[in-house]
């Protein structure tokens, strides 16, 4: 059966919005993947390592019959096709494709952690997720709107601009 999956995209090098658009075109071409929803683009301050350019981020909802690992490998192929190099933890990148949520599945493999370990702490992911599915329940049972308002209260919240 098809799984409902959320993917987070990010870019902070080159033509950022074009990189993201190209990545989404490649995702649309993966056999066994259907794109269901696409959030707005967001201009966001870098997270984790702040000595780098701002990011553009976007989140998409897909349905897929691929396993989580096979989907990850397809996303990694897309990163390579778009010219991503290994750039150190949380460093600048042409494109980043993360699996945020893969149906109800939990994976704690180093290669694949779902739900994404920083999902609940990243406004640049929570805001576009809430945009495309405001009623969504996260895998731990929490409601996206509640998590989002808690996170907003903890942060300045003014470093994310909807484009
Ligand atoms: P973060 O995962 O905190 O956003 P990052 O995106 O900068 O960091 P990368 O350098 O892109 O990290 O990826 C490092 C490794 O993370 C990849 O080799 C991949 O196997 C692994 N990984 C684990 N869980 C996931 C996931 N849910 N989506 C994508 N990659 C994942
Ligand atoms: Ca990432
Ligand atoms: Ca990544």
Task: Write a structural description.
The protein is an alpha+beta fold. It has one domain (about 5-160): 2-Layer Sandwich (Alpha-Beta Plaits), CATH 3.30.70.560. It has helices spanning about 15-30, 70-80, 125-130, 145-155; strands at about 5-10, 35-40, 40-45, 55-65, 95-100, 105-110, 115, 160. The strands form 2 sheets. Strands 1, 2, 3, 4, 5 and 8 form a 6-stranded antiparallel beta sheet that branches. A two-stranded antiparallel sheet has the order 6-7. Strand 6 and strand 7 form a beta hairpin. Helix 3 runs antiparallel to helix 4 (about 145-155). It binds adenosine-5'-triphosphate and calcium ion (2 copies).
Using the alpha-carbon principal axes, give the shape. globular
Q: For the CA atoms, what is the radius of gyration? A: 15 Å
What is the makeup of the main sheet?
A: 6 strands, antiparallel
The proportion of strand residues reads 25-35%
In the CATH classification, which architecture applies?
2-Layer Sandwich
CATH top-level class: Alpha Beta
What is the CATH superfamily?
Answer: 7,8-Dihydro-6-hydroxymethylpterin-pyrophosphokinase HPPK
Distance between the termini: 35 Å
Low-pLDDT residue spans: none
CATH topology: Alpha-Beta Plaits
Average residue pLDDT: 94
Structural class: alpha+beta
Question: How many distinct domains?
Answer: 1
Number of H/I helices: 4
Number of separate strands? 8
Bound molecules: adenosine-5'-triphosphate, calcium ion
State the order of secondary-structure elements, H for helix, E for strand. Answer: EHEEEHEEEHHE
**Helical fraction:** 25-40%
């Amino acid at each position: 059966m098809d799984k409902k999956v959320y993917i987070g995209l990010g870019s902070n090098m080159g033509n950022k919005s074009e990189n993201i658009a190209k990545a989404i075109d490649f995702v649309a071409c993966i056999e066994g993947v259907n794109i269901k929803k696409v959030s707005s683009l967001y201009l966001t301050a870098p997270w984790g390592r702040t000595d780098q350019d701002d990011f553009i981020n976007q989140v998409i909802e897909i349905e897929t019959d691929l396993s989580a690992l096979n989907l990850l490998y397809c996303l990694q192929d897309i990163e390579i096709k778009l010219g991503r190099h290994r750039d150190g933890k949380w460093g600048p990148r042409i494109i980043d494709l993360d699996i945020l949520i893969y149906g109800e599945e939990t994976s704690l493999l180093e290669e694949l952690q779902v739900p994404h370990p920083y999902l609940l702490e990243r406004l640049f992911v929570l805001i576009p997720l809430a945009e495309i599915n405001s009623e969504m329940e996260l895998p731990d049972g929490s409601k996206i709107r509640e998590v989002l308002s808690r996170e907003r209260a903890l942060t300045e919240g003014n470093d994310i601009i909807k484009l």
